[in-house]
Write a structure and sequence with these properties.
Radius of gyration: 20 Å
Structural class: alpha/beta
Pfam families: DUF362 (PF04015), Fer4_7 (PF12838)
Oligomer: single chain
Organism: Hungatella hathewayi WAL-18680
Order of helices and strands: EHHEHEHHEEEHEEEHHEHEEHEHEEHHHE
Distance between the termini: 25 Å
CATH topology of the largest domain: Rossmann fold
Strand order of the largest sheet: 4-3-2-7-14-15-1-16
Function: Ferredoxins are iron-sulfur proteins that transfer electrons in a wide variety of metabolic reactions.
Keywords: 4Fe-4S, Iron, Iron-sulfur, Metal-binding
Number of helices: 14
Number of strands: 16
GO molecular function, one term: 4 iron, 4 sulfur cluster binding
CATH superfamily of the largest domain: LarA, N-terminal domain
Largest sheet: 8 strands, mixed
Helix content: 25-40%
Strand content: 15-25%
């Protein structure tokens, strides 16, 4: 396979061009407007709005640049993400919208609306058959699959389970419904934390497989009947139902690659990744630590695999930030992400995506 083009610009500015203007020039040069017909097409921009308390998420100003460009071409554009599997500030659509607005993602700042793609409780999904090695039918937020065109805008950072959180993580994990996230994260099924359970029965009423019983005001889940859809997690008012998160990191990465394939197949797509505030952990955390390397720049490509690879290589060329968690780790792997999270293997996602034909590991870096 020939090399894919990845376009790059650093964060240096001039009196004549600010960062937002530079981002616009980058995506134009990368061919987003020439390569995709946006006219009268529903366009989803997948972004992470940031967990409340986290300050390393992308500023909404960046998204407005992409929104305005798409609208200038007649596109019907919206910003989107799916609800989280874990307990936090984005567990349901109402809290998720509150978090997005709190962090500046509102129509006045971005020029478009926010849609939580998998609905109020994370159960509004489209089943996408892919016949992958691990996933046979991906469960994707419905609004994302209803869109004609898919754009990803990613904050590139570290991640405690996947090594780094890049374009494929933003797409694959981020676009999964609650059941989809369950499928990626778990080899097992949800369980009840009995100390939190009050026996209200909300989980039992919403279980389509009669897997939940209430005994002495405590719920329990019969794993022989449970299909692992995760609906009980979404409806529990006490956050008493939890997932095991017991899948191996390598298989988790491969599942993310397969979910990314499910989201992107059979429609136009384009991807932008900003290597800025490279925190060691995901933006799903309600805090962010010192960036592990200095800010690098902005990248764009039609190939999500090449884009992730270019961002990894760029980060690994950077010096370690003094005082960061990476500066306290032994540097035995010659790889910043593996040194930060030694139990992860980010290459498994890249290699599996290449195997599936999702993209190219080899790239041609074009600096503008």
């Amino acid at each position: 396979m020939s090399q894919s083009n990845v376009y790059f610009t650093n964060f240096r500015t001039t009196f004549q061009e600010n960062l937002l203007q530079k981002l616009e020039r980058l995506v134009k040069k990368a061919g987003m407007l020439e390569g995709i017909d946006f006219n009268n097409k529903y366009t989803a921009i997948k972004i992470h709005f940031g967990e409340p308390g986290n300050l390393s998420y992308l500023r909404p100003n960046y998204s407005k640049v992409i929104v305005d460009l798409i609208k200038s071409q007649g596109g019907k554009v919206f910003l989107t993400d799916c609800n989280t599997l874990y307990v936090g500030g984005r567990k349901n659509a109402l809290d998720h919208l509150d978090a997005a607005y709190e962090n500046g993602y509102n129509p006045f700042a971005t020029g478009c609306h926010v849609l939580i793609a998998d609905g109020l409780k994370g159960t509004d999904e489209t089943l996408v058959p892919i016949d992958g090695e691990y996933i046979k039918e991906a469960k994707i937020g419905r609004a994302i699959m209803d869109a004609d065109i898919f754009i990803s805008l990613t904050h590139f950072k570290g991640h405690e389970s996947t090594g780094f959180g890049g374009t494929m993580k933003n797409i694959g994990m981020g676009c999964g419904s609650r059941a989809g996230k369950m499928e990626m994260h778990n080899a097992g099924k949800p369980h009840v934390v009995t100390s939190k359970c009050v026996g209200c029965g909300a989980c039992q009423k919403n279980c389509a497989h009669s897997a939940i019983t209430i005994t002495e005001r405590k719920a329990s889940i019969d794993h022989d009947k449970c299909v692992g859809c995760g609906r009980c997690i979404g409806v529990c008012p006490m956050d008493a139902v939890d997932s095991a998160c017991d899948e191996s990191n390598d298989i988790l990465n491969c599942k993310i690659a397969e979910y990314t394939y499910a989201v992107l197949k059979d429609r136009p797509h384009f991807h932008i990744s900003l290597v800025v505030d490279v925190s060691p952990y995901c933006d799903c955390h309600a805090e962010n630590d010192v960036p592990i390397v200095p800010n690098v720049g902005m990248f764009a490509s039609f190939d999500p695999v090449a884009l992730d690879m270019a961002c990894v290589d760029a980060v690994n060329r950077q010096p370690v930030t003094p005082g960061s968690i990476l500066s306290e780790k032994p540097h035995t792997h010659h790889d910043h992400f593996t040194d930060t999270h030694p139990d992860t293997n980010w290459e498994s996602a890249i290699d599996h995506a290449v195997k599936m034909g999702l993209g190219n590991k080899e790239y041609n870096l074009i600096t503008i």
